[in-house]
Design goal:
Elements: E1 2-6, E2 11-17, E3 23-28, E4 35-41, E5 49-52, E6 55-58, H1 63-70, H2 80-86, E7 89-95, E8 100-106, H3 110-121, H4 128-146, H5 149-161, H6 175-178, H7 183-193, E9 199-205, H8 209-219, E10 229-230, E11 244-249, E12 255-261, H9 268-286, H10 291-298, E13 306-313, E14 316-324, H11 328-345, H12 349-366, H13 370-382, H14 390-396, H15 399-409, E15 416-422
Parallel strand pairs: 3-9, 11-15
Antiparallel strand pairs: 1-2, 2-3, 4-8, 4-9, 5-6, 5-10, 7-8, 12-14, 12-15, 13-14
Helix pairs in contact: 1-7, 3-8, 9-15, 11-15
């Protein structure tokens, strides 16, 4: 294994790529009593259409999430969750638009638990009967999600921004789409995407990195296999298809999301810098200490239920901020005016340096969370860069970069507004 030192944060990262293409990242944490391991595949809810050996293949919405659920089934009839839990681990999994991740945390029996994790994720077992049963379970989950205002707000915004891209559809799919899934469909998608060359293993804890590598070599197939190429729709315009959508649901106060597209950089170093500039720009525009938030909070137009994010996933990029407000359109107007003011006067140098320090502090605090460390390493590696490099790059970002980013990405015509209002009696 190769190692990289990060003396400024007191971390050492071990890296290796096995003969089968699996990438391994290990962060030793000497003296700590807990361990965390995540095993992830570059395959998520938006990977519904892809090309393999020159052939276009379409799959039902929700299949990646469905596959995540069924991967815990073991040929013995037991569940991997039960087996890992009985061995002292706390296992779970999640599916995003472009990643499926299986993980566990434990305080003992780490090596045995790691073997169990690798073993169950590399042992697909599906039957027609268990698939039919799961369709009922996930169908109920989907119906509950359809009643969630936060989900509706998010997916409605993406329908404005990316009307042709599968990123606009719910990761779990629909009751109708999952009805098309069979045990054969699951095996086909598993065999195409769950290949070590399309996966990452990330570990943090008081571990021997070489031992982690040897366990992965012993538990996984050594064969190097090619991976299907996702066929995502291209987007030529940075403008939203429409600028406004409103839905009525059972909410106590109106909720909103303001969003704008961002074209993701393809080069790893540029992608890292773009991500950091985007997040710092959002903090300067709408963070809790920003003039915009302070003004709107004092006027009763925003509450503490407010946040922002830069979401790069499945070939798309979106800059999002939102929360609760009695008048979302007034918040949008105030946001436009703040962008206009910054374009005219620039960012305050003192506030800019304070925001950089706050961003750095947040990243340093994140290093104390093993789950955050492992999952960040995975997502960033799939995007082509190392999460630990962010601290050095963040220090080199200039005020002029953020001013240019705000000017380019938050022009009035590029903004879309999604609103959930209370149902009228």
């Amino acid at each position: 294994m190769q190692s990289r030192e990060y003396p400024e944060i007191g971390e050492k990262l071990y890296e290796a790529t096995l003969a089968d293409g699996l990438r391994i990242r290990v962060v030793p944490k000497a003296g700590f009593s807990s361990y965390f391991a995540a095993f992830a595949v570059n395959y998520g809810g938006a990977h519904r259409r892809f090309e393999l050996d020159g052939k276009k293949i379409d799959t039902p919405a929700g299949i990646a999430h469905f596959l995540e659920h069924k991967m815990f089934d073991m040929p013995s009839g037991d569940s991997a969750i039960n087996i890992l839990s009985a061995n002292g681990a706390d296992p779970n999994a999640f599916t995003s638009e472009d990643v499926t991740c299986y993980y566990f945390e434990c305080t003992h029996s780490f090596e045995e638990n790691l073997r169990l994790l690798l073993r169950f994720v590399s042992t697909p077992y599906f039957t027609a009967e268990t698939v039919e049963k799961e369709q009922g379970i996930i169908g109920q989950e989907i119906r509950m999600g359809e009643d969630d205002p936060g989900d509706a707000l998010y997916y409605n915004l993406y329908k404005l921004l990316y009307p042709e891209h599968p990123v606009k559809d719910r990761i779990a799919g629909t009751v109708e789409s999952i009805a098309e899934i069979s045990d054969k469909t699951l095996y086909d998608c598993y065999n195409m995407f769950y290949r070590p060359s399309n996966m990452i293993l990330s570990v943090a804890g008081d571990v021997d990195p070489v031992k982690v590598l040897k366990i992965a070599e012993e538990e996984l197939s050594p064969e190097l296999l090619s991976v299907p190429v996702a066929d995502f729709p291209r987007f030529e315009t940075m403008l939203p298809a429409e600028n406004f959508i409103c839905e009525n649901m059972e909410v106590s106060a109106p909720q909103f999301m303001i969003g704008a597209k961002m074209r993701p950089e393809q080069d790893g170093e540029k992608a890292l810098r773009q991500d950091l500039v985007a997040k710092l720009s959002l903090r300067l525009l709408a963070g809790y200490s920003s003039p915009l938030y302070t003004k709107l909070y004092s006027a009763g137009l925003l509450s503490r239920n407010f946040d922002y994010e830069c979401n790069v996933t499945a070939g798309t990029g979106a800059l999002i901020l939102g929360g609760e407000s009695p008048d979302p359109k007034e918040v949008l107007n105030a946001f436009k005016l703040e962008v206009q003011r910054i374009n005219k006067d620039g960012l305050d140098p003192v506030r800019f340096e304070r925001a950089k320090r706050a961003s750095l502090g947040a990243r340093l605090r994140g290093l104390e969370d093993f789950e955050n460390v492992c999952v960040s390493l995975i997502f960033c590696l799939f995007e082509g860069y190392c999460a630990f490099d962010a601290l050095n790059v963040l220090g080199s970002i200039t005020r002029e970069e953020c001013e240019e980013f705000i000017r380019e990405h938050f022009a009035p015509e590029r903004l879309a507004l999604s609103v959930i209002e209370a149902k009228r009696s």
